[in-house]
């Protein structure tokens, strides 16, 4: 389970969650862990509410490899976001968690449950510092930081790796419609390969 996290809203966490999910050659589950400001469902074009009798927290086990299942945020999970995520630990595929922004308790919960964290930030110094705070939160709860991705960026600013305390694995160029842009898609392909290589190492 990989938490997609960053310090500020608008950094590209949700776009990265879906872009990376599409790039991973595995059955992939993208989960929205932001019950207060959910938008994964809107970007993915799926309903916010489950069908009658359905539960968006329980993916269809027949989802083919190479396809993505999107689990929208639950309005009021009776047992909390952490329990919902822990139930997905046995999912046969890759789980990506679109985390809330900031440093509050709701942002910390997914970091505790995840196996690793991918930082997302834009290349400005304020956004990088906020992402560094997210990295510190993850490490404080014992979750390793797998790396970072910079959105709205063509190059990695000097010193970004040192500031974040982890390698920048990919940059994603600006685009009017990122998920439909071929250059953005190639960036997420590179990110998926870099994450896979780090997992093997």
Automatic annotation (TrEMBL):
SUPFAM superfamilies on file: P-loop containing nucleoside triphosphate hydrolases
Compositional bias per record (Pro residues), positions renumbered to this chain: 48-62
Name of the protein this chain belongs to: Septum site-determining protein MinD
InterPro entries the UniProt entry points to: CobQ/CobB/MinD/ParA_Nub-bd_dom, P-loop_NTPase, ParA/MinD_ATPase
Pfam families: CbiA (PF01656)
Keywords of the record: ATP-binding, Nucleotide-binding
Organism: Halobellus clavatus
GO cellular component annotations of the record: cytoplasmic side of plasma membrane; cytosol
Domain CobQ/CobB/MinD/ParA nucleotide binding: 2-153
Highest rank taxon of the organism: Archaea
Alphabetized GO MF terms: ATP binding; ATP hydrolysis activity
GO biological process, one term: negative regulation of cell division
Disordered: region residues: 41-66
């Amino acid at each position: 389970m990989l938490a997609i996290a960053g310090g500020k809203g608008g950094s590209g966490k949700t776009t990265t969650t879906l872009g990376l999910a599409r790039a991973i050659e595995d059955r992939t589950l993208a989960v929205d862990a932001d019950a207060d400001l959910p938008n994964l469902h809107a970007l993915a074009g799926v309903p916010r509410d489950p069908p009658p009798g359905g539960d968006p927290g329980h993916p269809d086990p027949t989802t083919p490899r190479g396809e993505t299942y999107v689990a929208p945020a639950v309005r009021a999970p009776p047992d909390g976001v952490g329990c919902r995520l822990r139930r997905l630990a046995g999912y046969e595929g890759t789980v990506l968690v679109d985390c809330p922004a900031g440093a509050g308790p709701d942002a910390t919960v997914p970091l505790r449950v995840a196996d690793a964290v991918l930082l997302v930030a834009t290349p400005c110094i304020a956004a990088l510092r906020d992402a560094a705070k997210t990295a510190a939160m993850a490490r404080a709860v014992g979750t390793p930081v797998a790396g970072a991705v910079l959105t709205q960026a063509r190059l990695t600013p000097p010193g970004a790796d040192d500031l974040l305390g982890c390698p920048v694995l990919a940059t994603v160029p600006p685009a009017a419609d990122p998920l439909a842009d071929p250059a953005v898609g190639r960036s997420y392909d590179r990110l998926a390969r870099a994450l896979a290589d780090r997992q093997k190492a």
